[in-house]
Write a structure and sequence with these properties.
mainly alpha, 7 helices, about 0% strand
Length: about 325
């Protein structure tokens, strides 16, 4: 390389300057060929020129290179005609130089054409691979978008199930509070009946003269109280049965919701197997599903415990009524 040869970075800078000076693609490639040949001491080729300019098709640098060699050959012939040499020697030398230029240009064009064919094949293969990659990416993006939409729908269904479970929990808590209030009301009524019976017995013991009338009156009052108590107990029992039926309906709805949840969970696992390489958000959704499953198990245990406590209270209620009737008969 000569002293005037440019470095690689200087070469790219000079090409950028030529790009701003020449708007025509052929003229730009010719200027780059002249730069390589005269200043860079390098034989210009279509591949090298296209790598530097990267404008137009591969035919543009080939055509520009042909014009460059033709102009260079014409200028050499002009210089030879102006030289002070004999006419016969000048003609022979011109023909020899012209033949050398034609052979060099022909060899350069053949080399360029072979290089172009290889580049064309490589470019076609690269474009095909690029197109296939773009189609694959589009397909994956479409599949990912569909999967994300399905996951969003599943999230909405899971949120709906969570709201339903929360409503069922609130409803179950309300039923338990109502049962507890009814039991307290029963206890208060039993205490009131016991106090009334004691007061009647004291009045009978203190009023010997009115014993017969008071006894009759007391029996009537006791009978009325028994009937009212039996009626109240029957109403309370009917209420309890109604509440128990509602509780069973709620439990059945809960089981249906749990079945729907299991189906949704199976669908979610299937989608997760398909998209396990696409996103890490599936792990968060799976964790949410596990938390929800644990919450549902806790709710089922609470419902089972509340059902067993309600059955035990029903078993104790008849024994208390029997004791009260025995005390009244005494």
């Amino acid at each position: 390389m000569s002293q005037s040869a440019l470095t690689e970075s200087q070469l790219h800078l000079a090409v950028e300057q030529l790009r701003s000076q020449h708007s025509n693609t052929i003229d730009l490639y010719k200027a780059v060929a002249s730069l390589l040949f005269f200043q860079y001491d390098s034989t210009p080729t279509t591949n090298r020129m296209y790598q530097l300019v990267r404008k137009g098709s591969m035919g543009a640098p080939a055509e520009a290179l042909k014009l460059f060699w033709k102009e260079l050959r014409d200028r050499s012939q002009v210089r030879m005609e102006q030289a002070d040499i004999p006419a016969a020697l000048k003609q022979s030398a011109g023909m020899l130089v012209a033949q050398l230029w034609e052979e060099s240009v022909s060899q350069a064009l053949q080399t360029t054409e072979q290089a172009n064919q290889t580049i064309y094949v490589q470019l076609a293969a690269a474009e095909k691979k690029q197109q296939e990659a773009i189609e694959t990416i589009d397909t994956l993006q479409s599949a990912l978008l569909i999967a994300q939409q399905q996951l969003q729908q599943q999230d909405e269904k899971i949120e709906g199930l969570q709201l339903s479970v929360q409503k069922e929990q609130l409803h179950s808590a309300t039923l338990q509070q109502q049962l507890h209030l009814q039991q307290e009301q029963k206890q208060e009524m039993l205490l009131q009946h016991e106090k009334a019976l004691l007061a009647q017995k004291e009045q009978i013991s203190l009023s010997e003269q009115r014993a017969a009338d008071m006894e009759k009156y007391a029996r009537l009052e006791i009978e009325r109280t028994r009937q009212e108590s039996a009626k109240t107990q029957q109403q309370d029992q009917q209420r309890f049965i109604s509440l128990q039926q509602k509780f069973q309906e709620t439990q059945q709805q809960y089981q249906e919701h749990q079945k729907s949840y299991v189906e949704l969970q199976q669908q979610y696992r299937y989608q997760q197997n398909v998209l396990e390489q696409a996103t890490k958000q599936h792990q968060l959704i799976e964790q949410k599903n596990q938390d929800l499953h644990a919450l549902l198990q806790q709710l089922q245990q609470q419902l089972t415990q509340s059902g067993s406590s309600s059955r035990s209270s029903l078993r104790q209620a008849p024994s208390r009524l029997a004791k009260q009737r025995a005390q009244k008969n005494r």
